[in-house]
Amino acid sequence: MTVPADAPAPALADRLAIVDTAVAYATALDTRDWPMFESLFTPDAVWEYLAGGERHVGPDQIAGRIRPTIDHLDGTQHVMTNHVVTLDGDTARHTCYYLAQHLKDGKRFLAAGRYEDELRRVEGRWLIAGRVLIGTWAEGDPGILQPAP
Fold first, then answer.
1. Are the C-beta atoms of residues 116 and 131 closer than 8 Å to each other?
2. What is the per-residue DSSP string for 77-97?
3. pTM here?
4. What is the pLDDT of residue 53?
5. Minimal CA–CA distance to 95: which of 109, 115, 113, 80?
6. Helix (H) or strand (E) run with residue 108 in it
7. Which of 3, 25, 41, 53 is deepest in the core (most CB within 10 A)?
8. Mean pLDDT in each 10-residue stretch from start to end of the chain (149 residues)?
């Protein structure tokens, strides 16, 4: 069920916990907290970037893909909005919009799109079991995402 504003308290608590997991993803990226980042995924989680035709499985592979594009930057800011949560017992679907800003040496790359997530409740925590990134637009210099050789 999509969680309406007048849902019972347990459903609202689950919705908040799921949105908190999504927001923690952005916080982990922007603070470069890779242990926290990896802790947000199930061991078999799948992360897909449709525009790049990429698919990575497991927290190590996912972090291994993202970390090199983030660590060398001067700063990032990932903002998420328009969260929609649909609960089904111990599984859930979540979608939201993202706006991701990346800065390096006075250059900027801005990307926007949406995340489509599948989550599972594991030992009382909502974890990302699948995340699909669907880009809708970008501007600036995507070359700054490549680390220097």
1. yes
2. EEEEEEEEEEEETTEEEEEEE
3. 0.90
4. 86
5. 115
6. strand 107-122
7. 41
8. 65 93 98 98 95 90 95 97 95 98 97 98 97 97 88
Q: CA dist 147 to 10, 66, 67, 102, Å?
A: 44, 11, 10, 13
Q: How far apart are CA 58 and CA 47, in angstroms?
A: 8
| Domain architecture of the chain: domains with CATH | 9-145 (3.10.450.50)
* DSSP-derived 3-state class of residue 1: coil
pLDDT at 110: 98
Eight-state DSSP code of residue 143 = G
User: How many Cβ atoms sit within 10 Å of the Cβ of residue 92?
Assistant: 22
> In this structure, are residues 1 and 11 in contact, taking their beta carbons and an 8 Å threshold?
yes
pLDDT of residue 112: 97
Q: Which long-range contacts (CB under 8 A, 24 or more apart) does 126-129 make?
A: 126/14, 126/17, 126/18, 126/20, 126/21, 126/92, 127/21, 127/40, 127/41, 127/42, 127/45, 128/21, 128/25, 128/40, 128/41, 128/42, 128/45, 129/41, 129/42, 129/44, 129/45, 129/46, 129/91
As a whole number of angstroms, the distance between CA 119 and CA 99 comes to 21
